[in-house]
């Protein structure tokens, strides 16, 4: 059964198509994380990184070294930075950029536009499709009209949206994003309440989403949902 678990901040663990996946793996410096880094020792298949800010790139380099079979999915330029800076073999990377689906052992992966900042390459969102389920992780982003197109193209069942404000969308803006993306199951808030600068009430997001005729699901750090 495919499963999603929120690990606090923007870190999300997925089990899809028999693969163990982590997105934006901030673990060691994540005060909300329910697990330690050694939880991922030699059991990861895929690491997805939306952009290079420390709270999203997180523990990627250490996880690559801990998981010889794992691959990294990110923009080509971010992968090149990791390869050159940390001497990581190119065989560890799935080269990509914003565009269509890329196959990874029967799972379809895609990168999407995100409106944010980063040092190495543009920031992105990520789409993961497998087991008949499509998950869209928006990464760090403000609200943008092309979310409507992302919804039309990828038809997500679950959307993971930042709601913390200041650096990303706030709850009201994220609810507008839900209306554009049209998730078929749930919108799940992420990237909030990790630190005081992004402290919000996720129930504000729930109310705004419900007003628009969609469903929101607030997970506690460490809580899972079967997809």
Automatic annotation (TrEMBL):
UniProt keyword list: Hydrolase
Protein name in the entry: UPF0173 metal-dependent hydrolase D1868_05010
Organism: Stygiolobus azoricus
Keyword Hydrolase listed: yes
Pfam families, per database record: Lactamase_B_2 (PF12706)
GO molecular function list: hydrolase activity
InterPro entries, sorted: Metallo-B-lactamas, RibonucZ/Hydroxyglut_hydro, UPF0173, UPF0173_UPF0282_UlaG_hydrolase
Record-annotated Metallo-beta-lactamase domain positions: 8-191
Family indicated by similarity: Belongs to the UPF0173 family.
Keyword Ion transport listed: no
